[in-house]
Amino acid sequence: MKRILKKHSQITLDVGCGSNKQPGCLGMDKRRVNGVDVVHDAEVLPWPFKPSTFNRIIMSHVMEHMKPWLVLDIMNEMWRVLKSKGELMISMPYAGSFGFFQDPTHTKSWNEATPLYFDPDKRSKIEAKLAYETGRTRYPEFKPD
After folding, report:
1. CA gap 103, 57 in Å, rounded
2. What count of other Cβ atoms lies within 10 Å of the Cβ of residue 11?
3. What is the pLDDT of residue 114?
4. Which of 28, 95, 139, 144 has the most CB atoms in a 10 Å sphere around its CB?
């Protein structure tokens, strides 16, 4: 693992890359295919990396396939292995779009407000709105540090 990490100076982790790993990235996937550097299922925690290892994490069209009850834990794990001031890039079909609904393996949709849940500065505003709309006052914990 040290040898692999050493050859990447600005270390970017491409989670669930399959055979389409982004150039210059360290690829992690649960399948051993061409381009994958680390064979590990992203839903199995913890990931085999030390804290604050990566400058950037890319997760392209993977999160919508994750078990919904693991999303908070996976986000916490990405937060753990991402360096302070690191960049997290998640892409997926838009909530309610044809692209989301046409694939039966999509389990959880996001919209432009979903990432705000994981922003400690914005979360309290979202929780206040949800509490007003639903009557609930407790929500699952996301630990940004």
Report:
1. 24
2. 21
3. 84
4. 28
- Report the range of poorest mean pLDDT among 30-39, 44-53, 122-131: 122-131
Query: Cα angle at 84 between 87 and 42, to 5 degrees?
Result: 60
Residue 96 binned pLDDT confidence (cut-offs 50, 70, 90): confident
Q: How many CB atoms lie under 10 A from the CB of residue 61?
A: 16
Q: Does domain 2-111 have CATH number 3.40.50.150?
A: yes
Residue 88 tokens read as 């997290």
Cα separation of 79 and 86, whole Å?
A: 9
- The answer to whether 47 touches 81, Cβ cutoff 8 Å, is yes
Spatial CA neighbour of 80 closest among 58, 121, 115, 48: 48
- Please count the other Cβ atoms lying within 10 Å of the Cβ belonging to residue 36: 20
Q: Which two tokens stand for residue 27?
A: 């690829």
